[in-house]
Design brief:
The protein is of the alpha+beta class. It has 22 helices and seven strands. The longest helix has about 35 residues.
């Protein structure tokens, strides 16, 4: 690290961006695709449309048949879930989970209650795979925390980049194509400035959605180790309005039958109370103590188009008596944790309709492009400088870095399109086929890394992007071969979502083909030999110490600062204890990012960080 603030921030921006960027490329790409998770799931499910005109039964009789079927599957089921069709040609889906946690599903004709052949369509995670990949990398709690650390690293890289680029807005209008390193730098700067507000918002809201998980210190300090329920109750009490919704009268049920066998009556009463159609019925602990039946309303497209923090209505019935136990209107009071809901809606683009979704998709891809150009620019700059900063191991390091760049960018794209092909090629009747689809995704990703390690970097880029282009262009052929469907047939049937999914993939196939052709004609000079310069004694240990201080010490400082702030807000009467916990927890992520920058900003800054953390610990103990 060099002297001077901008030089230190440049070092931090470079290395933080590189180390975090390899996985952030995949995370951003998956997040961008997950904006269209509903259309992707629809395309992947490939559910056949209901045909014929069988004798229609009233909805109450169909739901009674569904209830009888579910009751005959498992005596002590954890829940039943009935998903009502949004369109007349769709099936009604039935799900249940056994006492041992095994999930099952079936499909029923909503017109006459007849069971449909299994499997009905293709069991698949669909677009939910990209959402899960986006925030856990399909690695459980470890992946959840890893994505959190990477997101903080992204905030640090963005903030340090703002300090480094003193001509940040001028650089946005500078682009010199075909000039090697300069072109990569201009592309990196332009995509960064274009998407900077979006990336800051996405990174922060991605952390804030899980603020009680990533930063549980304030909640535990104020409400104790197991205080989540008490904190949520306090938030709900503070958000309650003077006039709570009046619960409707008990639906006219047949006393001889349990409420779960009269779901049609409950559904009609719930739709009248919610003022709109329902999308799902959930029966929790059917036939057991504390049985509860919930009816979820279907989101109103007009409301979600106008409001960011729009809610979905829900009516809850007592399973024993069938009476209303609670009613949550879509246009009623805000939820208890309104901050979480706002951050979630901002992050997942559940407002503004398709216009906002396309905007998020484009800006998300631009953000992924910024990270991709940054990682490539790193290797190009070091290759041209030939500084040999890793001594005799420098060529090996940059060979590995080049392979990781290929896998992080081209390999991520290859894995995504392989996931779509796996959906069509894996037999629909194969058990756990949804897990096999996800396995195919990761197998393709690992294969891309292995290919990049054994092939020259230039050839690996060209070959993998060419493979992505070929697979994108062949997807309609595979779809016709396996299901008989294609974009024109979807459009003719009025299924524009499925048609646009396939058409968009084909369009990207053309773009990838053009990219592969341009890279084929590019000039890829070998790295300079450079000079082998020995690092100062203890340099790498000092760097490691600062990194650990920024990661661990910064988290401790953010936690302690949030605890003190939460208590001060409550003691000063500026906010209730519950609201103070929420405010302090949300601000803690900014404290964390600034603390990490501070560690690298000036010599000896880590000492001040540790002293500040100790002072906050004492102050928090006094306030307790």
């Amino acid at each position: 690290m060099k002297a001077g603030l901008r030089q230190r921030m440049s070092w931090l921006h470079t290395w933080c961006g590189l180390v975090c960027g390899w996985l952030l490329c995949l995370i951003f790409l998956a997040g961008s695709i997950s904006v269209f998770r509903a259309p992707i799931s629809r395309w992947m499910a490939a559910e056949p449309a209901l045909t014929g005109t069988p004798a229609a039964l009233p909805q109450e009789a169909v739901l009674a048949a569904a209830s009888r079927f579910l009751a005959g599957q498992e005596a002590d089921a954890r829940f039943w879930r009935i998903e009502l069709p949004a369109e007349p040609v769709q099936a009604m889906r039935l799900f249940w989970r056994t006492a041992k946690g095994v999930a099952h599903e079936a499909a029923m004709d909503p017109r006459d209650g007849a069971l449909l052949p299994q499997p009905w369509g293709r069991k698949s995670e669909g677009g939910r795979h990209f959402m899960t990949l986006h925030y856990t990398l399909h690695a459980g709690n470890f992946g959840f925390w890893l994505v959190g650390w990477l997101t903080v690293g992204m905030l640090v890289a963005l903030l340090s980049g703002i300090v480094v680029h003193k001509r940040i807005f001028k650089d946005f209008f500078t682009f010199r194509p075909g000039r090697g390193q300069r072109a990569w730098l201009d592309g990196h700067n332009a995509s960064a400035v274009l998407t900077l507000p979006f990336q800051l918002m996405i990174a922060y809201t991605g952390l804030a959605i899980f603020y009680t998980s990533y930063m549980p210190g304030p909640l535990r300090a104020v409400y104790g180790e197991q205080g989540l329920a008490r904190w949520q109750a306090a938030l709900a009490e503070g958000a309650a309005q003077a006039e709570a919704p009046v619960l409707p009268a008990r639906p006219p049920l047949d006393e001889r039958l349990p409420a779960r066998q009269q779901l049609g009556v409950l559904l009609r009463a719930a739709q009248d109370a919610l003022g709109g159609p329902a999308r799902m019925i959930m029966v929790e602990r059917p036939g057991q103590a504390r049985e509860r039946i919930s009816v979820y309303g279907r989101p109103d497209a007009d409301v979600t188009l106008r409001q960011i923090n729009s809610a979905v209505g829900r009516a809850v019935f007592d399973g024993a008596s069938g009476a209303f136990s609670s009613l949550h209107l879509a246009a009623g009071r805000p939820s208890a944790d309104a901050a979480h809901d706002l951050m979630k809606h901002l992050h997942v683009a559940s407002y503004g309709g398709w216009t906002i979704k396309w905007l998020y998709f484009v800006l998300g891809l631009a953000g992924a492009l910024m990270m991709a150009t940054g990682t490539v620019l790193f290797t190009i700059k070091r290759r041209n400088k030939g500084e040999s900063e890793f001594g005799a191991g420098t060529p090996t390091f940059y060979r590995i870095a080049g392979a990781l760049n290929v896998a992080a960018i081209a390999g991520a794209c290859l894995a995504c399109i392989c996931y779509f092909h796996a959906n069509r090629l894996i037999p629909a009747s194969l058990p756990n086929r949804d897990a096999w689809e996800i396995s195919a995704f990761f197998l393709a990703w690992l294969s891309s890394l292995a290919h990049a390690c054994v092939r020259p970097v230039q050839r690996a880029w060209v070959e993998q992007f060419a493979c992505v282009a070929l697979l994108c262009l062949l997807l309609p052929v595979v779809n016709v071969w396996t299901t008989g469907g294609h974009a024109l047939a979807y459009a003719h049937a009025g299924d524009w979502q499925a048609a646009l999914v396939e058409s968009t993939i084909v369009a990207f196939g053309g773009l990838f083909a053009l990219l592969a052709w341009r890279l084929r004609a590019g000039c890829w000079a070998g790295p300079r030999a450079g000079r082998v310069a020995a690092s100062p004694s203890g340099y790498r240990w000092r760097v490691l110490g600062r990194v650990l201080c920024a990661v661990v010490g910064g988290y401790a400082l953010a936690t302690l600062g949030a605890i003190v702030l939460a208590r001060l807000l409550a003691l000063g009467g500026l906010a209730s204890s519950a609201t103070g916990v929420a405010i302090a927890s949300l601000l803690s992520f900014l404290i964390y990012a600034v603390a990490a920058l501070w560690v690298f900003a000036a010599p000896g800054a880590w000492r001040w960080l540790l002293m500040s953390a100790a002072a906050l610990a004492v102050l928090g103990w006094v306030l307790a």
